Amino acid sequence: MVSYSGDSKLTLPTYFSIMIVQKFGGTSLGTAERIKHVAQLIQDGKKKVVVLSAVSGTTNKLVEIVNSLYRNEKEAVDERITQLEAEYVDLADALFGTSEIKAKAIKMLENHWTHIRSFTLDMFTRFEERSILAQGELISSMLMQLYLDECKVQAMTIPALDFMRVDQQGEPDMWYTKSNLERIIGENDEIELFITQGFICRNHFGEIDNLKRGGSDYTASIVGSAIEAEEVQIWTDIDGMHNNDPRVVKNTRPIARLTFDEAAELAYFGAKILHPTSIVPARNAGIPVVLKNTMSPEKPGTIISNEPSGNHIKALAAKDGITAIKIKSDRMLLAYGFLRQVFEVFERHKISIDMITTSEVAVSLTIDYDGDISALIEELRQYGKVEVDRNQTIVCIVGHMLQSEPGHAAKIFSSLKEITLRMISYGGSKNNVSILIDSEYKEQALKKLNKGLFNLEG
Ligand code: ADP
Ligand code: ASP
Ligand code: MG
Q1: What backbone torsions phi and psi does residue 58 show, to the nearest 5 degrees?
Q2: Best mutation site among 58, 137, 213, 219 for ligand 2, i.e. most ligand atoms within 8 A of its Cβ?
Q3: What's the start-to-end Cα distance of the chain, in Å?
Q4: C-alpha gyration radius of the chain
Q5: Residue among 349, 341, 303 nearest 323 (CA)
Q6: How far apart are CA 245 and CA 230, in angstroms?
Q7: Is residue 346 scored above 80 in pLDDT?
Q8: Looking at the chain, which residues constitute the CATH 3.40.1160.10 domain(s)?
Q9: How many angstroms separate the alpha carbon of residue 442 from the centre of ligand 2?
């Protein structure tokens, strides 16, 4: 029985509260062996929704097909699809033991390739593009369901396109997701194992859309919040959030606990293990998020929750592709309304600002936007002289109560004493110090901070 309290708040039946959400990323599904391993991991007797990404590399290949289609390179499109097709025939060969299920998988895969091949440039828009990008998750979930069928494990695929929707602003439509999941799960009470696709959703027109690259984490958090899950688990290829970017720095170590705010800062400022906004729905619903390693499930990973996690510096992350904009104006002196006018220009262009610093005569800010900004710059010129620096990186140092403990800032800046710092943001929140540097110094900065803050070599 479902009860409703208020206009948009649904109270879920009690059995929902004992569910968990487990999300498996692309590398966790990269080979037949790994898919089999995930199929084992999800059979732990807990009622759950399993959110699957596309097999690793597939979304990138679909993006390449889309780009070739836009360039009208018919042969390249055909070659890329044929290559993908061959890879999945190999995967199906290695995954399935019975010829009947294997034949079923091959037949279903063929439908996906036929769909992708049906597009040509003269009828190719963003809508068709998004439909192609959705195929990776549709395929991985189909393969998992068939493998579980083969193993005689009872599971049910619940299509994300039936319950996951974003609104006009691209924000998750929580009411829609919640009420549809409630209905679907409620109607299938006997099922313990639900499988769904990460990343894909519908937009407010009802068209196929997605939650941006890496968005399966976001799906997991939205689903967790919608079903008021006990826990959201993000299973990936590393044993939790590390103190520094393991792609850049050799010696990094996992962090046992983070608060939601700390994890949100790290994700937003470049820790790829989490999609930038994925923490928000779980945080709003107070549901712990646990980061786990599929290859080493025995490792504790990282627990992200509301629990205090200690007053020290936890980790740092770096976000590339940043553009710094400085607006210098004598009119700024004692002029009220100046900042509002500048911000309104950004608002009109729908470009969000990450960092901001001010002085008597200038304001500097950063944006993470790879589109054309010439119109924005032109408009800003009416307020003063505008300077633009591209190829910048924000290094974000995260910890709890960063400003209330003396000595943190001194440690950070002495670690970076050989590097030119372009902007510093300190005091914006209790959790974060952000520093803007030229991207060419990123590796050096991350290594120096690894030594200075964590006593770990680069
Ligand atoms: P998945 O395919 O499972 O979604 P991702 O590649 O998106 O996995 O995220 C996991 C990767 O994130 C790791 O392999 C690691 O290289 C990268 N990463 C970047 N920063 C961090 C960090 N601070 N801690 C852990 N992993 C990180
Ligand atoms: N498959 C999508 C991507 O590669 C979503 C995800 O993996 O989270 O971006
Ligand atoms: Mg990811």
Answers
A1: -65, -45
A2: 213
A3: 57
A4: 24
A5: 349
A6: 29
A7: yes
A8: 16-237
A9: 25
CB atoms within 10 A of CB 176: 18
At 105, the amino acid letter reads: A
Which one-letter amino acid corresponds to residue 273?
I
23 or 426, greater pLDDT: 23
The minimum-distance atom of ligand 1 relative to the CA of 237 is 14
* 59 Cβ inside 6 Å of ligand 2: yes
User: What are the phi and psi torsion angles at 399 (to 5°)?
Assistant: -170, 165
For the stretch 259-317, pLDDT in tens is 999 999 999 999 999 999 999 999 999 999 999 999 999 999 999 999 988 888 999 99
Question: Cα of 433 to ligand 2 centre, how many Å?
Answer: 29
Q: Which CATH architecture has domain 314-454?
A: 2-Layer Sandwich (3.30)
Residues with C-beta less than 6 Å from any ligand 1 atom: 25-28, 53, 214, 236-238, 241-242, 245-247, 271-273, 315, 317
Strand order in the sheet with 385-399: 353-358, 362-367, 313-328, 385-399, 432-438, 423-429
Q: Is the CB of 213 under 6 A from ligand 2?
A: yes
Residue where the block lists tokens 């490792």: 299
Which residue is closest in CA terms to ligand 1's atom 5?
273
**Residues 303/387, Cβ–Cβ less than 8 Å:** no
Residue 443 Cα to ligand 3 middle (Å): 22
The ligand with the least distance to the CA atom of 52 is 2
The answer on pLDDT for 409 being more than 70 is yes
Q: What protein residues have CB closer than 5 angstroms to ion ligand 3?
A: 25, 214
Kindly tell me if the per-residue pLDDT of 402 is higher than 80. Answer: no
Ligand 1: residue whose CA is nearest its atom 26: 273
Q: Which amino acid is at 32?
A: A
Model confidence, pTM: 0.92
Q: Rounded to an integer, what is the distance from CA 277 to the centroid of its chain? A: 6
Residue ranges matching CATH 3.30.2130.10 in the chain: 314-454
Choose one of 50, 51, 218, 236 to mutate for the ligand 1 pocket test, by most ligand atoms within 8 angstroms of C-beta.
236
Question: Strand 353-358 vs strand 362-367: parallel, antiparallel, or unpaired?
Answer: antiparallel
For 336, the token pair is 């009220």
User: Residue range 147-176: average pLDDT?
Assistant: 97
Distance from Cα 206 to the centre of ligand 3, integer Å: 25
Q: What is the pLDDT of residue 430?
A: 83
**Ligand 1 mean position, distance from CA 275 (Å):** 10
Q: Residue 239: what residue type?
A: D
Beta bridge partners of 425: 434
Q: How far is CA 190 from CA 15, 48, 185, 194, in A?
A: 11, 12, 9, 11
| Per CATH, domain 16-237 is 3.30.70.270 | no
